[in-house]
Amino acid sequence: MTSPENDCLACGADGDSYVVGSAPTARADQHTQQMGSFDMRTAMTILGLGIVTVALFAGCGKKEDPVAQAAKKDAAAGVPAPGIAEVKAIAEEGFIYGLPIVMNYAVMYEYAVDKNSGQFKAPFNQIHNEARVFTYEDTAIITPNSDTPYSLLWMDLRAEPMVLSVPAVDKKRYYSVMLNDGNTFNYGYIGSRATGNDAGDYLVVGPNWKGETPAGIKKVFRSTTDFSLAAYRTQLIDAKDMPNVEKVQAGYKAQPLSAYLKLPAPPAAPAIDFPKIDKEMVKTNFFEYLDFALQFAPAGPEEEAIRAKLASIGIGPGKKFNFKDLSVEHKAAILLAMKEGDSKVDKYLAAGQKDINGWKVGSLFGDREFYKGDWLKRAAAAKGGIYGNDAVEAMYPMTKTLADGEPLDGSKHNYTLTFPAGRAGM
Hints:
Layout: E1 19-20, E2 23-24, H1 27-34, H2 40-47, H3 54-58, H4 66-76, H5 84-113, E3 128-129, E4 150-156, E5 162-166, E6 175-181, E7 186-191, E8 200-205, E9 217-222, E10 227-234, H6 242-250, E11 253-256, H7 257-260, H8 281-294, H9 304-311, H10 328-351, E12 354-356, E13 359-361, H11 368-371, H12 375-385
Parallel strand pairs: 8-9
Antiparallel strand pairs: 1-2, 3-4, 4-10, 5-8, 5-11, 6-7, 6-10, 12-13
Helix pairs in contact: 2-10, 5-8, 5-9, 5-10, 5-12, 10-12
């Protein structure tokens, strides 16, 4: 059985000399040689700084400039430090790599951290049931579904695993529990298609958990990050069916492993000061948020290369990449990198899927093995509709225009979607 829905749950010269290799280098000369395709005038326009002057680039960055600090460490180790063009290229690649991670953090912050966000659902490790369908007012997630009411569980797996229990569900009713981690990998499913409609207990563990599978647990799912989302979808047949959906939702349970085993709880994980995030703050603090999120996401084998590149410009878990501390040219490089990275994501979304009868159809969602380090595909998936299902669970035909090319505009028109006789439904 496939899912009946079409949802996708949804920026001076007072420092030390700039060093390349083992010898100090005049920065103006270096910039002249390394600019390549990097249009610095365009970048300065982005920053709103107007005319670019030679004097602007002749000085060193601020002492706190994280890019310059990383370059000094590389130089001390005998490793060539990236020039300005390479900084821009790495930041662009890093933006594409980090976009889903930062987007996921933003949703988690609104749903499970900030009780005043207007989108808050419940604290970590508590299920929140929505006995309603989502509307245009639910803005934290892109294109949420409207015929499978959601139950949402944000899990903190640092101290111990969580046990997710599901009730027996009528075999005529579709339901699913999609497990999605901070890397936006769909790392497992519970539900009608994946495990059937019988009752059961399932264990969700963090990336560093080591332990035996307890008796009574049907399956173990391992998140690649310390924080993870379980997104429950319960089919709503019609408007009168909501009480039946509520009964199913009431059967969803989540508890720490220690409670399930009736044992004392382990020591609590350290408290976290989650940085506030919103659409304006992320425009310049994007890599600061990525720094924060990566400390809860151990690198997989396919991430080692991009993580090393990011470290060379001062970005990574436990680092403090603060945009305001960057020199003017590094600010320009970072902003232009984000702009061009975002453009690449948009182009992939526009051209990276099949066109079927005017609808864009593609398979953009999956687990670590599905992506195989294709960060552009993963970024496109998140931007197109974060928390979408695997292709085996649901398909996502998308369009922004009518058949004649006229853009869809809900403020001016109402639209109907017509299926040929006998071809509608699941």
